[in-house]
Amino acid sequence: MRTLLIDNHDSFTFNLFQYLAQVNGREPVVIANDDPRFRMSDLRRFDGVVVSPGPGRPHRPADLGLARAVIDHTDLPLLGVCLGHQGLCLAHGATVGLVTPRHGVVDHVRHTGADLFAGLPSPLPVVRYHSLAVTDLPAELEPLAWASSDDVLMAVRHRSRPAWGVQFHPESICTASGHDLLANFRDLAGASAGAADPLPPVAAPAPARAVTVRRVDVHPSPERVFSALYGTSKDAFWLDSSLEGERGRFSVMGDAGGPLARVATYDVWAGRVTVGDEVFDGPFLDWLEADLAAHRVAPPDVPFEFALGWVGYLGYELKAEFGGDAAHRSEQPDAAFVFADRALVFDHLERCVYLLTLTDSDGWLGSTEVFLEGFGEGDPVTAAAAGGGAGCVRLRHDRAHYLKLVDACQEAITAGETYEVCLTNAVTWRGEVDPWEAYRFLRAESPAPFGALLRFGELSVLSTSPERFLRVDRRGVVESEPIKGTRPRGATPEADRALRAALATSPKDRAENLMIVDLVRNDLGH
Predict the structure, then answer these.
(1) Residues 439 and 420 in one domain
(2) Ranges for the Anthranilate synthase component I N-terminal domain (predicted)?
């Protein structure tokens, strides 16, 4: 089945994308609801249309965009999900208004067993993300399902056109039979699952350069080694695991001092990548993908995934290259990376150090091994106390203004303008600070498995985090481990157990974690 998926700029569209691809045997074509290239004549290429969820209100033309014209004029089988469902109903004369918000809520729906619900159990567990709902159906729309908790309408069908809508999210991880519901839509559209689209031919990859590895059976303090080897390096990095245990097993460090090393920076506004004296056109990730293909590295046989290559950061402003607005211009590079052609990897479990290099023409392996063996075991020097004072700190939003922003976020959620908001603040401290001493203090006060010190000339990035944002292993398996929902430690073990139980059974925290799982699934599904 050839499906057009209209994306209302939603955070779950690519969960729908994955489900539709699995059910139909081929990936849907995704277009944004404000894509200026779309023409109604394009619909001739498709067997059906799915209109995604999204923020906002179906009454507002910009929130549905071209989806409204498709709803009004297409004769193709059409399925609207959440906002798409509301848009379908509103277009045919129903009322759409505010209800009690349900975001990340697992509910059950009673249904008639017809059409989309053929063969599905009733009541059916589903996930709801909405602040608006449909009432006052016109004669041409037939109700198919209702929420067990509050009788809100959950699904409809058009009596004379091949059009259906569901208020809940069939693509959510906690919705039962989501694939089956979409398969029913496929069958209602008169198409069976087709063969998967053939993959395009893949060009022969460039030859991969081998990584030379040497294990040194010593385990000196990583902090002291970094200070001695890279303390004066202009461009250097330390991916630091300062927390004991398997999650904090490896630390990696290096700099741009090797014969094949390079430093790349990017300006998203100019669309330019600067590598030494050379300038390349962006977007940055397109350039990076091409560079990685041209300078392939064969992963060595070691107990970790790091295999040399680019190490650095991606700035928030890069969102402008992924459909976001270029709302801010950073004073710093929007991306900065070191191509590490040699590095040290500390194995804190086996208490050894691996030396990795792409070339040893200058005898780096031997000299570094001798250095480490003569360095000896030892603890880092006690970190200095943090400098500065309260008068040096400036908040972008003070407490009073921040609380007003919280109220504004809650109002937007209640009004249906959004169902996910990440409200942040920025703290600025101006004065003399030594990034190295500041990082030493930070890692001592807040040890974490995912710390980092990145140095690019006058710019340093200091980080310590318990979260694994993203991990890709050599098999191509992608893993993300966000942390949501926390409680303070109790004064006694009994208090800890009570807090743990309260966290595990909290409806608010469950809803938030469900939403995060669906968001991560969407991001990994692109």
Answers:
(1) no
(2) 222-355
- What are 87's two structure tokens? 């848009």
Round to whole Å and give the CA distance between 139 and 452. Answer: 62
Tens of pLDDT, residues 84-119: 999 999 999 999 999 999 999 999 999 999 999 999
Q: 142 and 278, same structural domain?
A: no
Q: What is the pLDDT of residue 387?
A: 56
Phi, psi (rounded to 5 degrees) for 100: -60, 125
What φ, ψ does residue 384 adopt, rounded to 5°?
A: -70, 155
Regarding whether 454 and 405 lie in a shared domain, the answer is no
Catalytic, out of 85, 130, 169, 348: 169
CA geometry: angle at 326 spanning 320 and 332, to 5°?
90
Q: Across residues 454-458, what is the average pLDDT?
A: 96
pLDDT in tens, 256-307: 999 999 999 999 999 999 999 999 998 999 999 999 999 999 999 999 999 9
Overall domain count for the chain: 3
pLDDT at position 391 is 54
488 inside domain: no
Residue 46 exposure: Cα atoms within 13 Å on the Cβ side: 25
Closest CA to 48 of 154, 170, 161: 161
- Mean residue pLDDT of the chain comes to 91
468 belongs to a structural domain: yes
What's the whole-model pTM score? 0.85
CA pair distance 338, 309, nearest whole angstrom: 8
How far apart CA 242 and CA 339 sit, in angstroms, is 24
171 is catalytic: yes
Query: Are residues 144 and 124 part of one domain?
Result: yes
Q: Which CATH number characterizes residue 163's domain? A: 3.40.50.880
Marked catalytic residue, from 9, 82, 223, 348: 82
184 and 217: one domain?
A: no
> What are the angstrom distances between the C-alpha of 392 and each of 316, 374, 431?
25, 42, 7
**What is the rounded distance in angstroms from the CA atom of residue 217 to the CA atom of residue 223?**
18
Whether 379 and 221 have beta carbons less than 8 Å apart is answered as yes
Catalytic residue among 171, 223, 317, 348: 171
82 is catalytic: yes
Looking at residue 379, what is its pLDDT?
58
Are 289 and 360 members of one domain?
A: yes
Show the domain range for 401: 394-427
Cα dist from 15 to 22, 51, 178, 386, 522, whole Å: 11, 13, 11, 45, 5
Is residue 348 located within the same domain as residue 417? no
Q: State the virtual CA torsion across 358, 218, 236, 227 in degrees, nearest 10.
A: -150
Q: Is 169 a catalytic residue?
A: yes
Please answer whether residues 214 and 365 qualify as being in contact, where contact means their C-beta atoms are separated by less than 8 angstroms. yes
Does residue 504 belong to any structural domain of this protein? no
